[in-house]
Amino acid sequence: MRDRYGERAGNVLEESRYGQPVTIGDVTVTLRPAGHVLGSAQAVLEHRGERIVVSGDYKRRRDPTCAPFEPVACDVFITEATFALPVFRHPDDAAEMQRLLSVRDTFPDRALLIGAYSLGKAQRIICLLREAGHDRPIYIHGALEAINATYRSFGVDLGELRAVMETPKAQMAGEIVVAPPSTLNDRWSRRLPDPVTCFASGWMGVRARARQRGVEVPLVISDHADWDELNRTLDEVAAPHVWVTHGAEEALIHAAKQRGFNARALSLVGYDEDAE
């Protein structure tokens, strides 16, 4: 049976292939939503009555741009641990958007430049702004255009977007601009009227990181589960064996063992914990 994004994520209407099993040798593989970005999936592997779930990157917050994470009961759960420390408890997304809009009202002559990763985060920020009542055009870096078009093709309504390159500098005063994080301190930002630099990332909960990047308005908005959400996920999945990778493994392993899980670290090559 096919799920539809529209049943799970409001305005996302295209059919997905979540839930359709594929047999590879003696193993049945099924994809279930991971809630990370549009199309992200957990891999459910079943073999002779045993089930392993590989979560990949996932988050537990509502996201208008993608299907939400779906807990799947299993024997072994492989979980990420990007923000697996008690210090990481992300604030409400809507509250962060209201804080951002209040900054815009405070500086009506400056552009608000939001650094957001091109795949997933930028589109989520745009949709959250729309939900917060921001119905003015949002200006974007050219690097986002193709991915924005892809999201729109799957039914995600981003509202009116305008290219920075095609807009006079003065016209962007008091407006919101979304661009890749690399532009925050790049010459490209000179196209904007005295920009207020903002960065949307779970790492912005660490003040030192915000200072290092020269970020004036840190927005704590993550596409990964925070400490409480990681632990809640372990309880919901209820896998006797938990393998932890990609982040602060030790803290989550300790917390899992305290609750009776057989937890261990799983080292993978090629991950960058800062890429969030």
Rg over C-alpha atoms, rounded to the nearest angstrom:
20 Å
CATH architecture annotation of the largest domain = 3-Layer(aba) Sandwich
By DSSP (H or I, 4+ residues per run), the number of helices equals 7
SSE string, helices as H and strands as E: HEEEEEHEHEHEEEHEHEHE
Number of β-strand runs: 13
Proportion in helices: 10-25%
Based on CA inertia axes, which overall geometry fits? elongated
How would you explain this protein's 3D organization?
The protein has 7 helices and 13 strands. Helix content is 24%, strand content 22%. With 276 residues, the protein is an alpha/beta fold. It has a 7-stranded mixed β-sheet, covered by helices on one side. The longest helix is centred in the middle third of the chain and has 14 residues, at 93-106. It has 2 domains: 5-87 and 224-265, Metallo-beta-lactamase, Chain A (4-Layer Sandwich), CATH 3.60.15; 93-219, Rossmann fold. It has helices at 5-8, 93-106, 121-131, 145-153, 207-213, 227-237, 249-258, and strands at 22-24, 27-33, 41-47, 50-54, 76-81, 112-115, 138-140, 161-163, 176-179, 196-200, 217-219, 241-247, 262-265. The model is unreliable at 1-16 (pLDDT under 50).
Give the structure's gist in a few sentences.
The protein is α/β, with parallel strands linked by helices and 276 residues long. The chain folds into 2 domains: 5-87 and 224-265, 4-Layer Sandwich (Metallo-beta-lactamase, Chain A), CATH 3.60.15.10; 93-219, Rossmann fold.
